[in-house]
Amino acid sequence: MSRARKPAQLVLEDGTRFEGIAFGAAVPASGEVVFSTGMVGYPQSLTDPSYYGQILVFTYPLIGNYGIPAASLDRFGIPRSFESERIQVRGVVVAELCEEPSHYDAKRTLSGWLKESGVPGIQGIDTRALTQLLREHGVMKGKILMDGCVDPGFETEEFKHPVSAVSPKEPIIYKGEPGAPTIAMIDCGVKANILRVFLSRGITLLRLPWDHDLRGLEYDGIFLSNGPGDPKACTKTIATIRRALCDDRPIFGICLGNQILALAAGADTYKLPYGHRSQNQPALEIGTDHCYMTSQNHGYAVRSNTLPPGWEAWFSNGNDGTNEGIRSIDGKFRAVQFHPEGCPGPRDTEFLMDQFIRAVQDRKGRQAAATLLASTTPSVHFGGGRS
């Protein structure tokens, strides 16, 4: 049975128009137009909170091949096949849509999933030409339009502080194994697999809103999550981490967390022309001969030459030399720009999260030993003699 093909347009803020065919929800959308060069992982990418408010262009020529799995939760109550509970992008752009997927786990098509979620898509676009335009002129705002739909314009109020839209409103506690350390996770839009990595290792997680104050809380280490938007908009998070840098509890960050840690330390960040969004970005560990293939999704970066004394660049990007990680000289505070947890993409650097966990465990062990020693050391009293 033939399906009705409804014309649609992708319009960029510089006036460029791309004609195509609508799929998904028959609604208009606006957002920053960005591209990903990954070959797989579209269900995870579309549900990644770091993409919140954006129109995502897939450069791989055929998308939807293996369909969409059913929504289900793992033993921790975390989405099994997605990186959050919903689609986070505002729109999807592909060259060709596969409407007859083939996969044992497929329960619906990409188009059907987008339609259920109220998200529009447009296919038949020359994504190569579009990507070249964004690469040469930088990412820009855009909108997906269809006949009979109201033009949403380019400015959307709800996207001015995207972190507040994807961060939890109240703290969430995940109980770990007895005696396990507690990590305070500042959730700016954390991906599900980051949660899974920590919980699968028995850690107790205190998952906090992006602007939550850490003062008065009991925890052994701090984790700064990924998230969308300009890191400089997270002023409350930056202030919280600046105070935490006066403590000795380990800190580790991923993606936006790398930028927030840098700003808290006194460094600067800037917007990249078109960002890094794919699963094959080379990250070089500075001072070694190690190169790791990494999963990335970010549009901002740290200016390595603005790091203050006591800090150093840890990783750099093998393609353009931009910063891919920072650390304090004493090693207590670290962050990376890439995603060690993958999903989608390689997990070759997941050991960095294990290093952080060991640092937190070691500190907890030292604190416990010091407390025990203080409680078992006999008090010595010196009294005066009789006259």
Please give the count of helices: 8
- The CATH fourth-level homologous superfamily of the largest domain: Class I glutamine amidotransferase (GATase) domain
Radius of gyration: 23 Å
Gross morphology: globular
Describe this structure in words.
The chain has two domains: 7-159, Glucose Oxidase, domain 1 (3-Layer(bba) Sandwich), CATH 3.50.30; 162-370, Class I glutamine amidotransferase (GATase) domain (Rossmann fold). 21% of the residues lie in helices and 31% in strands. It contains eight helices and 21 strands. The chain has helices at 42-46, 110-117, 127-137, 162-166, 192-199, 235-244, 256-265, 351-376, and strands at 7-12, 17-24, 29-36, 54-58, 62-63, 68-69, 91-93, 96-97, 106-108, 120-123, 140-146, 172-174, 182-187, 204-209, 221-224, 251-254, 269-285, 291-302, 311-317, 323-328, 333-336. The strands form four sheets. A ten-stranded mixed β-sheet has the order 12-14-13-15-16-21-20-19-17-18, sandwiched between helices. It has a seven-stranded mixed β-barrel with strand order 1-2-10-7-4-3-11. It has a two-stranded parallel ribbon with strand order 5-8. α6 (235-244) packs across α7 (256-265). It is globular and about 85 Å long. The termini are far apart.
